[in-house]
């Protein structure tokens, strides 16, 4: 149900942004001048360096291995058990009932989170994920099959930032935030005052969104075609033009869960 509300939120963003076309949204006012504080040099280069052949995410600087808790395994937790199922058995051949005659959904016992966990999937099926677990390392886009051992570091929570039009992404497993850094994305300690962790979600007419960095005024970009199991994430000027080497369309998809075959 939370994902449903998230979809409604994305649809509502068309009205909030006031854009009639994708290009108008992509050319919104540049707010990068507000990011006055330069980020410290992390000595990881200006662009993502391709990971080694090690398949499993590596722990750097003595960071202990992460216990990948499958918080999303019980899919029933993602739905409200109190929702009436009477609507599912409605006879649609009859005239529609008045709104006040419809079955009422009981109120939730307590407020829910801003969103449950989601994955950020490119049009090539690869999702944004942490690879090196220590803060200050690059993010990548991995295919689900190629990242089976990654666990919940492939899932993110979408939360509103201090600005009504900005959002930030918090990693489910590590609690770190997605952050624009030079020509790519890293994950770092969350700081609500850090504009580099603020992003705009610009919806397109295909159901996808463009993830635009507020601090750099550029969009998250990936190479949809590659001969590896991953795509490189960079920041480049926002455009709706797609090629084999450049795409900026992402889909806010359900979280990637551990699959267990059933006999």
TrEMBL record:
Subcellular location(s) per record: Cell outer membrane
Keywords: Cell outer membrane, Lectin, Lipoprotein, Membrane, Palmitate, Signal, Toxin, Virulence
Protein name, entry field: Cytolethal distending toxin subunit A
UniProt keyword Lipoprotein present: yes
Membrane topology field: Lipid-anchor
Cellular-component GO terms for this entry: cell outer membrane
Superkingdom, natural source: Bacteria
SUPFAM superfamilies xref list: Ricin B-like lectins (SSF50370)
Record-level Gene Ontology MF annotations: carbohydrate binding; toxin activity
Gene name in the database record: cdtA
Main subcellular location of this protein, as a coarse class: membrane
Signal sequence annotation: 1-21
């Amino acid at each position: 149900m939370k994902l449903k509300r998230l979809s409604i939120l994305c649809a509502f963003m068309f009205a909030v942004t006031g854009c009639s076309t994708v290009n108008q949204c992509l050319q919104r006012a540049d707010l990068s001048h507000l990011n006055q504080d330069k980020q410290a040099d992390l000595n990881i280069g200006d662009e993502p360096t391709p990971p080694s052949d090690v398949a499993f995410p590596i722990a750097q600087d003595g960071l202990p291995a992460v216990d990948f808790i499958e918080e999303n395994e019980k899919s029933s937790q993602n739905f409200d058990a109190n929702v009436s199922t009477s609507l599912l058995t409605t006879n649609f051949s009859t005239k529609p009932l008045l709104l006040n005659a419809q079955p009422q959904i009981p109120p939730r016992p307590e407020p829910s989170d801003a969103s449950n966990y989601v994955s950020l999937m490119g049009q090539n099926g690869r999702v944004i994920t942490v690879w090196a677990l220590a803060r200050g390392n690059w993010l990548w886009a991995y295919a689900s099959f190629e990242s089976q051992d990654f666990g919940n570091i492939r899932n993110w929570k979408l939360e509103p930032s201090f600005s009504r039009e900005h959002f930030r992404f918090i990693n489910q497993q590590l609690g770190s935030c997605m952050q624009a850094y030079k020509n790519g994305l890293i994950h770092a300690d969350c700081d609500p005052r850090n504009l580099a962790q603020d992003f705009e979600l610009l919806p397109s007419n295909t159901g996808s969104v463009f993830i635009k960095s507020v601090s750099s005024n550029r969009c998250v970009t990936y190479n949809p075609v590659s001969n590896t199991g991953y795509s490189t994430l960079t920041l480049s000027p926002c455009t709706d033009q797609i090629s084999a080497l450049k795409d900026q369309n992402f889909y806010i998809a359900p979280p990637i869960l551990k699959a267990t075959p059933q006999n």
